[in-house]
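=== RUN LOG ===
request id: a7f3
mode: sequence -> structure
chains: 1
length: 349
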Amino acid sequence: MKKFFTLIAVALAATSVNAQEIWSAATAVDRSGDKPAVAGAVQSTTSEGVYAAGNVEGPDTSVPGTLTSETITGSTDNVTLTIVSTPNNLSKMDVEDGKTLEYWSIRGGEGNNEALTTENCNPKFESCLMPKGNPTFVYWDYYIINDQGQEAFKIGDTSDIYWTAGKDMPVKGAFIKIEPKAAGSLTLGVYVNKGNHPVYVVDAETKQILPNTDIAVKFYYQNTNFAYFKEEVENEYGEKVVVPGSEKYINEGTMPEDYIMQHTNGVTENRPALGYITFNVEAGKTYYAFNPKSQLGCYGFQFIGGTNGISDIAADKAAISEKTFNLAGQQVGNGFRGIVVKNGKKFIK
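=== RESULT ===
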């Protein structure tokens, strides 16, 4: 009898690890009032790497400082996800003036074109929590006397503190922390605030970015009427017309080498994008997802334990890399002449 119950316990454990788990940021959005608000946010004082003096050259590390962060935590059986928001403009002046600081913006909503609820979206996410502040591992602020002789508040030269591989993990700003208890495939729904900025997933232990070929990308532009390889061309009357291309509105593939999602299919619209990044996670590890120069929003996540969600992507990519397409997204032969797309890049034959 004891052996029988042991077998049942093992079977149940295996089922729980391999089951699909979903957490949606919409559960943290309170829409009961006139204006949507975030529920369940927890404030904390951030002091690591924060300084209250210095100049444009760098912080004065002898003068410690503090900032206030707000976090939202979403959990399933096997994954804990933490979204952090620390506005960059939280200064002494804000506190003294009694200003009300909003740590989050909410995008999407039922029927909104910033929601991941259209036909090809899986899983479907209604709302996105957009935290504020650029993710940095060090922050300093200081005062200068401006041209009018007035004291002006300044933030340190952030061009020197954008994250690159090998640096410590961000301690402030907008970032997503992922802590899996089991190995599997994690799909993260994201809103990319700046379309021409990279999106990184980082192993917190090694401080290295996950290889781009290990990350699957599936996204829309901010409005969903984008079509593959859309081009403006002149017709026989000299009029400019738009060639809509394929009717498939979603962009899929592996993360590009420069980690800019909009380069997935060789076309850049340079506007906000919303969609999914999928990658494998190991049990007991910690991962960070962020845009190193601006904000990265979170719709939620889907975790499937014991699976490899991107194992076939490299093979699929190799299979299509030699194919050539016209601007309508149709495969063409070697005899075709005109503008073609091959391996994600456009050129003229």
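=== NOTES ===
The mean pLDDT is 79.
The helical segments are 2-18, 92-97, 313-320.
=== END ===
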